[in-house]
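Spend some time on this chain, tokens included, and walk me through the fold:

. . .
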Amino acid sequence: MPDIASDGSDHQFLRFVDVKKSYDHKHLVVKGFDLDVAKSEFVTLLGPSGSGKTTILMMLAGFESVTGGDIRIDGRPVTRTPPYKRNIGMVFQNYALFPHMTVAENLAYPLKVRSRTRREIGETVERYLALVELDGYGQRHPGQLSGGQRQRVALARAMIFEPSLVLMDEPLGALDKKLREQMQFEITQLHRKLGFTVIYVTHDQTEALTMSDRIAVFNEGVVQQCATPDDLYERPQNAFVADFIGENNFIPGRIVEVRGNSIRVAITGNQQVTAQAADIQEVGAECIVSVRPEKMFIRSNDQVEGNEITAKFVVHHYVGDFIRYYFKLEDGSEITVKVLNDVTAPSFADGESARLFWQSNDCYAFRHM
């Protein structure tokens, strides 16, 4: 992973300051976006369709105007700078390659418009073909390449003129699962090797967790949380982030006691559990307790630590490396537990009671979504 610390200057390499966007001068699709990005950092904008993440990318690229706020690259304001003067590389989902040009001509084009010499263009094209493992493909046309090969050409073309930033808008969306995973690895390897700064847009949470130094989670034009992948997954700040990142169980309840950052919650069936306070701490308030399926355990002995509840077994699904168990509480709330597929995996009859256990540090109490 590249060093994402500040380079010692008094500004971050890329800065969004209270950036807003409206298309009708009434409703904001981006609402006061703030973000600092260090040089060589890989930051992903993650969220559902219509959340504002692509609009942010388009404003940064200069393809959309900024309604309010400021965008700075290396200390310079760029909100009024035309796209071709921002020194930004762009990778699109549909590759955006020139079909009538060969691969080599596609790569040469950004260098030609920057008036590089013929010798420099030839040497640079060969170097980048080798970098993306497409030696010998220079004379082919995009239509003669596979989807993964075309995406490599698009990556090379975005980087070949050594831009200050590379923007990627759902670049792997058109690829199948296996090829997506391969390209995720290749993009992160190129990023580590060359050290360019990346702003990456996706709605795929696994992609974001796998590739990013930090992730900004969007919803309805607002960043819900911006953090490292492990912070987002292990310490979500609200119910939207907990629900959007990974898989979670949500158990409704009411807060009966608060001790610092620890909350006691009454749930169905006269049961109580302890959780970490996230965005709610008022005694008597309705809340939801969030705990991930892999953090829960099915206990059959009498030695219990942490939270314990009783639930009714519904069904289990064999997934291969693990088994997914489904349970229900008295109020109908559904609970999922993921158990490794080994000799210790338990079996239950339909409707049988089971004791479910988890550590209080592994769950959070949130306001209702």
Q: What stands out?
A: The longest helix spans residues 177-194. Helices lie at 53-61, 103-112, 118-131, 147-159, 177-194, 205-211, 229-234, 239-244. The domain at 250-366 is CATH 2.40.50.140 (OB fold (Dihydrolipoamide Acetyltransferase, E2P)). DSSP finds eight helices and 20 strands in the chain.
